[in-house]
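INFO  loader      accepted 1 record
INFO  loader      residues=295
INFO  predictor   begin
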Amino acid sequence: MGRSQEIYIRAPRFGNINRILGKAVLYGVVTAMTLPIIIMYLWLFMQSVSEKVLIGFIPSGFTADGWRFLWGPVKFGEVLLPPIWPITLNSLIIALGVTGIEVSIALMAGYALSRLRVPFRDSFLILIIILHAFPGITLLIAIFYLLNVMGLINTLLSVIIAKAALEIPMATWLIKGFFDAVPWDVEASALVDGCSRLQAWYKVILPLVKPGVAAVAIFAFLAGWNEFIYALTFIFDPNLYPLSIHIIGLIGEFRYVDYTLLAATALFYSIPPLVFFVITQKAFMKVPLVGMKGA
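INFO  predictor   done
INFO  writer      dumping tokens
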């Protein structure tokens, strides 16, 4: 009896040790994976306030000259760059435009594929994955021709439409899995209570798939914010350039590169996606594994 009591008393202590070791291993792995990224951003910050190019992490003289783009045009060498705020607005318009179009259409299409009897639905979903494996640049000439016929070349709308159209199929496939995870009984109860199909979708189903909406939104925002090749191809007016092209202007003059300015601009470029992720992370982190089903 005494031995049984002793085993009963010691078991929780070993259980706590195992939990502590498990958490230590988990945090160790996560730290090892994120440490290179943290070091990279730390070096960028140190470089953005250093007067000379850094080899280590200790700035060679502190300066705020790298952040001068925040309050006016920038001139270095023979290059004169426009103020960054209108360019940042262009990037935000593209990113938010892609997000709005992609999320809206993917929600409706994903619901239809999940709940309605669509002919050849499974084959269609497989085809989406196959087509998504091809790089979008292979369609560059065809997209340019279509946008030119529509009169949208040299507008931000051309980049928004092209990027959203290429991202919608995969977003639809992803959001369909979240609709599949919602039991049909939930929607049937709403229909019995007098809701129309649209009301049931909007008032009952959508609140249950908020993690999926957040997941699609963050990927759509990143796709629009980081877009480069379509913006470079479809836009000719420098006043309409997004930040992705603006940064290229900082390294285009090979005779003179201001690395302090380049590092500060790169840090500035990473802020809006981080802010958007912080806003959506509460819903994004609740993504259920069952929601990732494709069919």
